[in-house]
Design goal:
Elements (H helix, E strand, L loop, with lengths): L2 H32 L3 E3 L6 E3 L25 H43 L30
Antiparallel strand pairs: 1-2
Length: 147
Amino acid sequence: MTDDERRELRDLMQAHDQMMTEHQEWMAAREAAAASPMQKSGAEAILYRVHEQNTQPPADDNGPVPSDDEQYPAYSVLKESIGYVIAHERASVRKALAKRDERITKLEAKLDAVLTMLGQKSNFPTMGKSEVVELPRGFLRKVHANG
């Protein structure tokens, strides 16, 4: 073994020893942090805390309580504004439903016209689910557009 190899081996061993020391220190700190904050004090099995500050934390509030000087609106204002929003939404829904009903009426009229052209009359209110409307032969045929 040459002198260079011996020096390199010695440096590696020193680095290994340093890493092992650091690892042992880290493990000791980790175990201390994971230790139980409560320990038995003797045969009576009385528990006591092991940390610097033995004061209890303050009790939590149940949440903010609105008062007159806070920025919460009054109940009557909330009730009035919610009523306004509901009325406005109902009006917009009524408009949308009216448009839908108008479109359905137009489609029913068009369907009546198609059925009349086919020689049948429509009776929407009395038409049941069991009735089948037969279309003439060749009603659905492929149309080839070759040029």
